[in-house]
Amino acid sequence: MAQLNLRPADLQRMILTGSFGSQLDVTAVLGLGMIPPVPLQAIETSANGAGFGAALMLDDAEFARASASQAAAEQVDLDMDPDFDRRFIRSLALTPEASR
Fold first, then answer.
1. What share of the chain is helix, strand, coil (3-state, %, to 5)?
2. pTM summary value
3. 11 burial type by CB count under 10 A (0-12 exposed, 13-18 middle, 19+ buried)
4. What angle do helix axes 49-56 and 60-72 make, rounded to 10 degrees?
5. Is the dihedral of CA 93, 8, 16, 42 positive or negative?
6. pLDDT tens digits for 2-48?
7. Which of 30-34, 60-64, 82-86, 93-97 has the lowest mean pLDDT?
8. CA distance 26 to 32
9. Are 33 and 99 contacting, i.e. CB atoms less than 8 angstroms apart?
10. Whole-angstrom Cα distance, residue 87 to residue 79?
């Protein structure tokens, strides 16, 4: 988010997926600062997001939309960010203040 000059208020939707993400207590992870402080109603969980996404690719329009998204996507190399290590270590405290 820092590399893109985004703030938590800029996030309109967050999807926690997979066997780990879908089982999280959203209120708890917000309180711990594990995810950016976004409104509770902006967070969704999906147990099988990968499977759902794969099924969408069977539709031509959805495949085209995903292809356009993929072409516009950029990789963020956190290991190249000079501040990442400091922010990561500070966040290990699992307090809301540490995630800032």
1. 55, 10, 40
2. 0.70
3. middle
4. 110
5. positive
6. 888 999 999 999 999 998 999 999 999 998 888 899 999 999 999 99
7. 93-97
8. 10
9. yes
10. 12
